[in-house]
């Protein structure tokens, strides 16, 4: 006979400081796990507070309310008869820790602090927490009096220990600890720990899931064991979308996998596993030799068994079978991640919908298509009977339960919550105006088509009245300074118009509330600074601000078929243009010509600058080889210097960048991810001179090589 156990992990859409909502979602996940027969349930990192509390983790109230919530869980019926792994911050000896709280039947068994902190990229855990540095060591933690009354305990162990039940042993590995070279799961496995839990707050980034998945599988592929991975899922209150994908892995193989993207609040993943499979997997001689000499962890006794005789006595119950890992394509990731993020932001901000300036170009088209995807997800969730989604949809649309409104058609739902506007001038083309109108019709948005020439003319007239000077476009004989200023007038007026329409359109339609303004600047344009500061890229939120132009084009090509939107093909065929200058027989404004570089080149620059940590010279030396088949050495130098010049003179724009969905590893977001000066010496004289000297050397070597042949 084997030893069958059922275990549960989950993805929860927690919200920073929403203690009431977080408690309800946590209890619901415990209830579902228990209903499915699980005896062990783990949840996401810091699930009681929400992961994204940031500097609120420095406040005493956050710790007080965490204990209050834990007290309610300890006394809940849902928690009875289960071993629960919960996440919250704990202060011990005046030091703040990010902890797991292991509880069983109204008792706290162990407080396990995080030992290795995530402190790069979007993470700043060392700002709020201290890592537990005493490996395999515990101390006594004095419980708050309100918890003592519930548990009957005065102190409990805090530190690096494991839980021993009657039939197995459980250890904890938290988020970043998995990503470190000497991860805790190695020592835990060698000490006989058979189940390892990992509670995480891991955010979505395009093409990142493969890395996480391989690390999780690898954790038990060599050492054997059961690995339970829990993650937050949703918008926690900032730029990140936590992408769920709760996992249960046995001996390096996935037996259960949750969704990566969902607008649901609670998703529980369970599996039935035979503990004997772990023991037989670990029978290798070399493993035994290492395990026999490994250092031991303190074992905290849990007076229970995870295995259930009813499972073993029922021949019809089988262990969960291995299943192939599921990955979304990058195009699917773009269609789902930002859409879920938008829905969370919309419903939690208590606004009435979105307003989007539609230019007829591919960027605003991508933003609109993501909103269309969001509407599809809402309708699909409502069709499944998700009561939370139905309640949120009614609130956003101003409906009540009495009306019985349930979204059943994405276009009809879009007509209620999505507002688009084409803001044309005499520099706009009929093509972009027509594309914007057809796209709005395809999605179902409430669309406004207007000309703003009178507003532009009024501002120009004011300037002329005050200064006596009349600026002209370059096409009409004006200087570059005049030309740029006249473009910026149009761009900035669009931002002003966007906000007045966002505030008043619901009133015009006889509906309550106001609208969130959506931005549409992509990550490459932000990196280069190819947008006007305080133009309509200045918005409330931006779903594509962390996505490259190349990926957006691939997403639109995917959505054309997946969403049955033929109009999207015309956006793929169009030349990207700002349409801020007069169109003449000899000149039509084109983005890549204006920038002096292609969008694909910008993506390359961005990855080398951020991911590979290249300055101007090291970027040049890399690209000389990477681009040797298409550009001369001197041409590579010109492009690198041009990029760094425009990047540096425009870096100040990142300080006012609209909060954008984080999706790309080279995002220039100045808020937390990419910390740089915003006043540069744009001449880069030392760096550029070294590039120039290297160009001369390389060209001379190439010339001598040609002569030798």
Could you please describe the fold and organization of this structure?
By secondary structure, this protein is an alpha/beta fold. Helix content is 42%, strand content 17%. It has 25 helices and 20 strands. A hairpin with a 4-residue loop joins strand 8 and strand 9. Helix 2 runs parallel beside helix 4 (145-151), helix 11 packs across helix 19 (549-562) and helix 23 (616-626) runs antiparallel to helix 24. The longest helix is centred in the last third of the chain and has 29 residues, at 480-508. It starts with a strand and ends with a helix. The model has no long low-confidence stretch (mean pLDDT 95).
Annotation keywords:
709 residues; alpha/beta; four-stranded parallel β-sheet; 20 strands; 25 helices; single chain; 14-stranded mixed β-sheet
Number of helices: 25
User: Uncertain spans, ≥5 residues at pLDDT below 50?
Assistant: none
Largest sheet: 14 strands, mixed
SS-derived structural category: alpha/beta
Radius of gyration, in angstroms, nearest whole number: 29 Å
The helix fraction, in percent, is: 40-55%
Number of strands: 20
Shape: globular
Measured distance between first and last alpha carbons: 77 Å
Oligomer: single chain
Strand coverage percent: 15-25%
Mean pLDDT: 95
Pathway: Cofactor biosynthesis; NAD(+) biosynthesis; NAD(+) from deamido-NAD(+) (L-Gln route): step 1/1
Catalytic activity: deamido-NAD(+) + L-glutamine + ATP + H2O = L-glutamate + AMP + diphosphate + NAD(+) + H(+)
Keywords: ATP-binding, Ligase, NAD, Nucleotide-binding
Protein name: Glutamine-dependent NAD(+) synthetase
């Amino acid at each position: 006979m084997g030893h069958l156990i059922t275990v549960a992990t989950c993805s929860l859409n927690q919200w920073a400081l929403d203690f009431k909502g977080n408690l309800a979602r946590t209890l619901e996940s415990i209830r579902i796990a228990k209903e499915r027969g699980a005896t062990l349930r783990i949840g996401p990192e810091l699930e009681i507070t929400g992961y994204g509390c940031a500097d609120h983790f420095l406040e005493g109230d956050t710790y007080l309310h965490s204990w209050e919530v834990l007290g309610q869980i300890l006394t809940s019926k849902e928690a009875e008869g289960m071993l629960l792994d919960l996440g919250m911050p704990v202060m011990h000896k005046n030091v703040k820790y990010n902890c797991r709280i292991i509880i069983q039947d109204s008792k706290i068994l162990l407080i396990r602090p995080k030992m290795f902190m995530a402190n790069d990229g979007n993470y700043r855990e060392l700002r709020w927490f201290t890592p537990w540095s005493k490996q395999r060591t515990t101390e006594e933690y004095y419980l708050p009096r309100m918890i003592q009354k519930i548990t009957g305990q005065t102190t409990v162990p805090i530190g690096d220990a494991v839980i021993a039940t009657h039939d197995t042993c459980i250890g904890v590995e938290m988020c970043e600890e998995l990503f470190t070279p000497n991860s805790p799961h190695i020592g835990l496995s060698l000490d006989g720990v058979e189940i390892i839990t990992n509670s995480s707050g891991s955010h979505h980034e395009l093409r990142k899931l493969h890395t996480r998945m391989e690390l999780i599988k690898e954790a038990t592929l060599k050492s054997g064991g059961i690995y339970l991975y829990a993650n937050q899922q949703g918008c926690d209150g900032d730029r990140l979308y936590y992408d769920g994908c709760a996992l249960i892995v046995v001996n390096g193989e996935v037996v259960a996998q949750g969704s990566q993207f969902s607008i649901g609040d609670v998703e529980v993943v369970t599996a039935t596993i035979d503990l004997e499979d772990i023991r037989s997997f670990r029978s290798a001689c070399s493993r035994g030799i290492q395990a026999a000499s490994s250092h031991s962890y303190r074992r905290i006794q849990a007076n229970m068994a995870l295995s259930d005789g009813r499972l073993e006595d029922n021949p019809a119950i089988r262990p969960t079978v291995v299943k192939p890992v599921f990955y979304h394509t990058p195009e699917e990731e773009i269609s789902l991640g930002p859409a879920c993020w938008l829905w969370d932001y919309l419903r939690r901000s208590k606004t009435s919908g979105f307003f989007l300036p539609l230019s007829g170009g591919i960027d605003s088209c991508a933003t609109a298509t993501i909103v269309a995807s969001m509407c599809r997800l809402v309708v699909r969730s409502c069709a499944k009977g998700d009561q939370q989604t139905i309640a949120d949809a009614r609130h956003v649309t101003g409906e009540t339960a009495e009306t019985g409104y349930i979204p059943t058609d994405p276009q009809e739902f879009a007509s209620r919550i999505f507002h688009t506007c084409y803001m044309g001038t005499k520099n706009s083309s009929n093509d972009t105006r027509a594309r914007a109108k057809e796209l709005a019709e395809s999605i179902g948005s409430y669309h406004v088509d207007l000309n703003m020439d009178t507003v532009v003319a009024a501002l120009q007239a004011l300037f002329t009245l005050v200064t006596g000077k009349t600026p002209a476009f370059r096409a009409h004989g004006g200087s570059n300074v005049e030309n740029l200023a006249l473009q910026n007038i149009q761009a900035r007026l669009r931002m002003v118009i966007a906000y007045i329409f966002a505030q008043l359109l619901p009133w015009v339609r006889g509906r309550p509330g106001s609208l969130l303004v959506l931005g549409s600047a992509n990550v490459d344009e932000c990196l280069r600074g190819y947008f006007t500061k305080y133009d309509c890229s200045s918005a409330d939120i931006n779903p594509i601000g962390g996505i490259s132009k190349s990926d957006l084009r691939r997403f639109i090509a995917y959505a054309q078929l997946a969403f049955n939107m033929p109009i999207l093909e015309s956006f793929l065929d169009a030349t990207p243009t700002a349409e801020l200058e007069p169109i003449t027989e000899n000149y039509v404004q084109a983005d890549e010509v204006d920038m002096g570089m292609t969008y694909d080149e910008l993506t390359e620059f961005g990855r080398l600058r951020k991911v590979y940590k290249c300055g101007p010279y090291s970027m040049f030396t890399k690209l000389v080889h990477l681009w040797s088949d298409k550009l001369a050495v001197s041409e590579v130098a010109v492009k690198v210097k041009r990029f760094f010049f425009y990047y540096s003179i425009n870096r100040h724009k990142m300080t006012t960048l609209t909060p954008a969905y984080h999706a790309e590893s080279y995002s220039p977001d100045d808020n937390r991810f990419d910390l740089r000066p915003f006043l540069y010496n744009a001449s880069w004289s030392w760096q550029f001179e070294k590039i120039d000297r290297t160009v001369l050397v390389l060209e001379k070597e190439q010339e001598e090589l040609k002569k030798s042949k």
